[in-house]
Amino acid sequence: QIKACLFDLDGVIVDTAKYHYIAWKELASNLGFEFTEEDNERLKGVSRMTSLNILLEIGGITLSDEEKHRLAEKKNENYRTFILKMQPDEILDGAKEFLQELKAKGIKIALGSASKNAMTILERLELTELFEAIIDGTKVTEAKPNPEVFLKGAEALNVAPSECVVFEDAEAGVEAALAGNMKCVGIGSPDVLGKANLVIDGLHQMTYEKLMELN
Ligand code: G6P
Ligand code: MG
């Protein structure tokens, strides 16, 4: 019996990838190489430090841990100038409506995001109150595809993993949900998210009835 829904943030509720892209591209440019939109795809769902490691690998650059932390911090400051200006109209189509529908039906709602900026983003979008539990990058040690972020979400909601449905746009996130013994709805392309129980284009296609069909 489905009792709870756990949501990834970036790419499911809001498109932050475009801001991450601008900030990573600028960092690459400062380091003297090009960072493309295709490269940016590899960073979806991936933690900040892992993202930096991938970027440095693309640029063929090796740096000390100290230098890497400095650059990750610099990128994040740049990224935050964009998210601090976000508005509620940037919520992806249908996301808020679906969250409200779940709430009305008594389904519990949690966030499960790798981002350390999740709280800031939810505040800017005026969505914080809709979440009963928020598990973000400040609360986990293991990155997706490890299920930690979703298991902590289920625990905080006081439901069993088998009673949860996860909404994810990244392959690693789908894997994390399934590894946690949860059902998963993929948001995006079936080519990438084929392991999910259902794949849709966005939350505008989701309803309580479709959720119950996953039972
Ligand atoms: C999400 C995004 C990733 C991002 C990660 C960490 O998973 O999809 O692209 O790298 O969060 O975000 P942060 O805001 O902590 O840098
Ligand atoms: Mg995501």
Automatic annotation (TrEMBL):
Name of the gene encoding the protein in the UniProt record: pgmB
The lineage's top-level taxon is Bacteria
Supply the name of the protein.
Answer: Beta-phosphoglucomutase
This entry's Enzyme Commission designation comes to 5.4.2.6
Q: Which cofactors must be present for this protein to function? A: Mg(2+)
Q: PANTHER family recorded for this chain?
A: 6-PHOSPHOGLUCONATE PHOSPHATASE, HEXITOL PHOSPHATASE B
Q: Which organism is it from?
A: Carboxylicivirga mesophila
Q: Does the keyword Phosphoprotein apply?
A: yes
**Keyword Phosphoprotein appears in the UniProt entry:** yes
Reactions catalysed according to its record: beta-D-glucose 1-phosphate = beta-D-glucose 6-phosphate
> What family, per the record?
Belongs to the HAD-like hydrolase superfamily. CbbY/CbbZ/Gph/YieH family.
- GO MF terms held by the record: beta-phosphoglucomutase activity
Pfam families hit by this protein = Hydrolase
Q: Where is the signal peptide?
A: none
Broad EC category: isomerase
Keywords on this record? Carbohydrate metabolism, Isomerase, Magnesium, Metal-binding, Phosphoprotein
